[in-house]
Amino acid sequence: xxxxxxxxxxxxxxxxxxxxxxxxxxxxxxxxxxxxxxxxxxxxxxxxxxxxxxxxxxxxxxxxxxxxxxxxxxxxxxxxxxxxxxxxxxxxxxxxxxxxxxxxxxxxxxxxxxxxxxxxxxxxxxxxxxxxxxxxxxxxxxxxxxxxxxxxxxxxxxxxxxxxxxxxxxx
Length: 171
What we know:
single chain; 0% strand; mainly alpha; 8 helices; elongated
């Protein structure tokens, strides 16, 4: 059955190739379509309330092509812009990195510049991998190494992750 289908498809391709030769001047090659980058850099419209942090969010957003308003909304949700914040689960700093993730990304959790740099790099990687802002936020909150399918489940099933994604989506 498969062999017969292959032979039939070969015939179809041969007929199309004869009808539309590659060197036909009337046939123009298709332009490659470049998918848009999600959450790409745009001038910042939000503020953290602290000008030194606003500058960091803006610079790191531009450097890693991540919307600084997204980074600011995360900063507010993660630590309310407190660089010494510590969660019950052990996440620390302005961007609330768990110790293992901080080590993986070379982040000094006590340094706002380093923390936002790691946050922007992590978000850019998640955005590139998932092509979805909500899934990227779920990954930031529930584990960045999970597959997109697992991130989808985490977003839908873990109340903290669902609330995190919703909170940032409203900002």
